[in-house]
Amino acid sequence: MYICVINNIGETVFHKNMECSRDNLELVTNTFGKDIVVGVECIFTWYWVADFCAENGIEFALGHAYYMKSIHGGKTKSDKIDSEKIANMLRGASF
Fold first, then answer.
1. Which residues pair with 60 in a beta bridge?
2. Per-residue confidence at 95, pLDDT binned at 50, 70, 90?
3. Which domain of life is it from (predicted)?
4. Which of 81, 85, 90 is closest to 58 using CA atoms?
5. CB-based burial of residue 75 (10 Å sphere; 0-12 exposed, 13-18 middle, 19+ buried)?
6. Which of 4, 39, 41, 42 would give a disulfide with 61, using CB separation of 3.0 to 4.6 Å?
7. Domain of 84?
C-alpha cells in the first residue's frame, strides 16, 4: 500500500510504499495521530482499512479513481502518484 501523509499546510511529510498490513497502518496512525483522514482508492480489499478506522475513531474516505477527475484525467498513473493526489483532495487542495 502506498501511504501519503500531508500536513495541514500542504507539505508531504511521509510518502512510502509499505507492505499492506494492519501493523503498518497502525504504525503510521500512531506516528501521525488520530486527527487524520484515511483515504482509499476503491479496490476489493478496502474493507479491513475501513474496519480499522472505525475501531480506532479515524475518519475514512473511499473513492473510485474513475470518478476522481484529477486521477482519471492524468496522463501518468501509478499508486505513488495516486496516493499523493488523494491525500491532496482530502486536504481540499486543488490541482
1. 38
2. very low
3. Bacteria
4. 90
5. exposed
6. 39
7. 2-91
Residue 72 in grid coordinates: 482519471
For the segment 28-41, the average pLDDT, to the nearest whole number, is 88
Mean pLDDT, all residues of the chain: 84
CB 62 within 8 A of CB 50: yes
CB under 8 A, 24+ apart: contacts of 32-38: 32/5, 34/58, 36/5, 37/61, 37/90
Residue 50 exposed, middle or buried by CB count within 10 Å (0-12, 13-18, 19+) = middle
Give the three-state DSSP class for 6: strand
Number of domains in the chain: 1
